[in-house]
Design brief:
homodimer; alpha/beta; Rossmann fold; six-stranded parallel beta sheet; elongated; DNA-binding
DNA sequence: CTGAAAGCGCTTACAG
DNA sequence: CTGAAAGCGCTTACAG
C-alpha cells in the first residue's frame, strides 16, 4: 500500500510550516484567506486527509463509540444498532460493534479492548450470563476512570451510569391486562429469557396484571428451543390456557407455531401477545400482537445521551430515561376497540371479537 | 475522567527507561527475566494497558476491520456480520460497522472516513444504489493506494479486489430446476432487488433453468412493498402460476402471506422457493424451502481472506471464492426425495408429494 | 541487558 | 499572519 500524503508533505510542497498548513486546513481564524485557499486546494489535489491515529493521540478523542450487544440476529438488537448507528453518524461518530453472544467473558474482553483509547464512550446491553451471575466486576475499571457508559434495555441498577430502557414491568402488566380485557381467563407467562433483567421484570409485570383478579398465575420458563414444543404442549394439554404472554418475539412465534401445529386456533383457543415489534411479528399468520419496545428509539436515545455526555466539560449526574411502550394490536389476539390503535393489519380482515 | 497509567508513569515508578518498560511488557527477548517480572507486576498493579492511538500511530496498524453493509435488519447481513465479527475477534481484530442503507452517498462517506487510518482493511457488500448506478468512483482512491478490500455477496467485477460470493446464477437455476422436478409447470421469478448484482444473476439463473423446457418465462419486479399484494395478485389471478422463485427471504414470505390470504394453497396451488435461510423461513407456516446462501460462512471467509492479506508483506493476487449453496427442502414446495436432504421440518409432517 | 534518541502525524501554546 | 517547538504515548534501531 502506497504512502498517503501527510501534513509534512503538503508543507514541503507549499513551502510553509507544518503548523500553518494544519491551521489552514482546520480553517483557523489565525490564517489569512489567501493561504487557506492555497493550502486547501493543494490538500484536495493531493487527496490529503488527516491521519486518524495521530489526531486521536493528540486530541484524546476518537469520535468512535463502542457498542456491545448480546447478538445481532434478533430484531430488537439489530434495530437498536440501526438507531445507534444513525444517530452516531449524524453527529460524526463511528461505531465499533462487539457481540457478547450472551457471554460474560466475551463482554468483559470487549470492554477491556475498547476502553484503552479505541473509543470515547460505550453503549451496552448486558449479556444474559452477566445478568444471571450478577457479576459486574468487569465494569469496575471503566467506572473507576469515569469512562462514559450508557446501558440500554438490559440494565443493572448497581452500575452507576446513564440508562435507557422501557418500563418492562408496566409493559407486561399492560399486556396481561390487555388479554384480560379481551376476555382471556387463564393466562400464562412464557419466557426463554428468565434470569435477564427484562425477563424478570416482565414476569413481575405479568403477576401485577393478575393481582386482584383471582386468576391463578402460571409461569413456563423454557431454557432451550429443543424442548419448546414438549414443554408448551404439556402445559396446553394438561391445563386450561386461553392466553399467553411471552417475553420476547421468537418465543411468541414459536408458541404460535407449535400451538397451530397441534391444532389449537389462534386467537379463538389461545391468544398470544409478545414483545418487540419485529419482522416476524408483522408477517406471521396470524400476525402477532406485540408490545412495541421502541428498539430503534432506545438506540437513538442511547447514542444521543452518550454524545451529550461526551460534549460536556464537567461530569454530569447519570441520566435515566424510560421510554413509553405501546401495544400494537394484530391478529393473534381478540380486538379491543377502545384505547389501542390498530395499525398494520395487512390482511385488512376484521379482527374477531370475543363474545 | 481520570488519567490512565502510561509507559512513562511506569518507567518513573520502576526507575527504568521507557524503552525498557515497553520491551518488558511486550516480552522482548532483549530483556532479563527478572526485569520482565518486575515490570509486568507493576503494570498489572496499576492496571496498565497501552494506549491504542499511540500504538496505531507508531505501528501503522489498527487491528480493526471496517465493515460496510446495506443494512443490519435482514437476516442475511446480520448473519454475515456475525460471521465476520467472530472470525475477526478470534484473530484479535475489532470491527467498525457502517450501514449504507442502500445509499451510494452514505457508502462513499463511510469509505472515506474509514480509510484514513481508522482501519487496516475493509469488507463491503455494495449498496443497491451503487450497483444500479454502476458508479464506483468512490472506490478509486482506496484502490489507488492498494487499500485492502474484500467484497462479498454483492460484488462488482470492475473493482479489482478479493471477492467472496455464492454462484447466484447457478443457485437460481437449481432452484428453478428443483421446482420443475417437483412437477411445477408455470414458474415465475419474483424480485424486489432487481438492479443489484445478485438480483440480476438470480434472474438469469431462473432463465437458464427454464431453457429447453418450452416453458414461458415471466418476471415480476416489485419496487415497493406497498404494491406487493396488488402486483402479485394481478399476476396470480390473470395467469396460470404454480411455482415462484423469489430473489430473497422477505419477498418469499410476503409472497406466501398474500397468496395464503387470497386463498391459494401452498404448495398445492403454488410452490414457493426463496433465498437465504433465515429465521422467517424456518418458522413460517408453511416453512419456506430456500437456497442456503451461507451467510455466516461468507462473513467468516471474507474476514479470513482480508486478514490473510493484511498479514502478507507483499501484495498478492486478488482471491475469488465462490461458496457452494444447497437447497433446504421444507414445506412450501413438494418433496423431492432424491438428492436433497430434508432438514429442519419441525412439524415432522410428511411433505406432500405432487402426483 | 538497559537506555537515549528519533519519529509516527498530528495540534496548539507561544514567539516573532 | 506565519513558524518553531513541544508533546500526545508508543516502538524500535542503535549505542553502550
Amino acid at each position: 500500500m502506497e504512502k498517503k500524503c501527510t501534513l509534512k508533505d503538503l508543507a514541503k510542497i507549499l513551502n510553509l510550516a507544518v503548523s500553518t498548513v494544519s491551521k489552514a486546513i482546520n480553517n483557523s481564524p489565525e490564517i489569512s484567506q489567501l493561504t487557506k485557499i492555497k493550502v486547501q486546494n493543494t490538500a484536495q489535489l493531493y487527496n490529503y486527509s488527516p491521519n486518524k491515529s495521530a489526531q486521536n493521540l493528540k486530541t484524546k478523542k476518537t469520535k468512535t463509540i463502542g457498542v456491545i450487544v448480546p447478538d445481532v440476529l434478533s430484531h430488537f438488537f439489530a434495530m437498536a444498532i440501526h438507531g445507534i448507528e444513525t444517530e452516531a453518524n449524524s453527529k460524526g461518530y463511528k461505531i465499533i460493534i462487539c457481540l457478547s453472544n450472551e457471554s460474560r467473558e466475551k463482554e468483559s474482553k470487549s470492554i477491556n479492548t475498547l476502553i484503552n483509547g479505541s473509543i470515547d464512550g460505550l453503549i451496552i446491553s448486558l449479556s444474559k450470563e452477566t445478568q444471571i451471575t450478577e457479576d459486574y466486576g468487569h465494569f469496575e475499571e471503566a467506572l473507576k476512570y469515569n469512562f462514559p457508559i450508557v446501558l440500554f434495555d438490559r440494565t443493572f441498577e448497581k452500575i452507576i451510569c446513564d440508562k435507557i430502557s422501557i418500563n418492562d414491568q408496566l409493559a407486561a402488566k399492560e399486556a396481561t391486562e390487555y388479554l384480560l380485557q379481551t376476555g382471556c381467563q387463564n393466562i400464562i407467562f412464557l419466557s426463554t429469557i428468565s434470569g435477564t433483567s427484562v425477563g424478570e421484570k416482565r414476569r413481575m409485570g405479568y403477576l401485577d396484571g393478575l393481582k386482584n383478579t383471582g386468576i391463578q398465575s402460571s409461569i413456563l420458563n423454557i431454557k432451550n428451543y429443543n424442548s419448546f414444543e414438549k414443554l408448551l404442549m404439556s402445559q396446553l394439554q394438561n391445563f386450561k390456557v386461553d392466553g399467553i404472554v411471552t417475553a420476547d418475539e421468537l418465543s411468541a412465534i414459536s408458541t404460535m407455531k407449535y400451538a397451530l401445529k397441534n391444532s389449537f386456533k389462534i386467537p379463538e383457543d389461545i391468544s398470544v401477545i409478545g414483545f418487540t415489534n419485529g419482522v416476524l411479528a408483522e408477517n406471521y399468520i396470524p400476525s402477532l400482537t406485540v408490545v412495541d419496545q421502541q428498539a430503534k428509539k432506545q438506540g437513538t436515545i442511547a447514542a444521543r445521551t452518550l454524545i451529550k455526555r461526551l460534549n460536556k466539560k464537567k461530569p454530569i449526574k447519570p441520566v435515566h430515561r424510560t421510554l413509553k411502550t405501546s401495544i400494537i394490536q394484530r391478529q393473534s389476539t381478540f380486538a379491543l376497540t377502545a384505547k389501542i390503535t390498530e395499525i398494520d393489519n395487512p390482511s385488512g380482515k376484521q379482527l374477531p371479537s370475543k363474545v
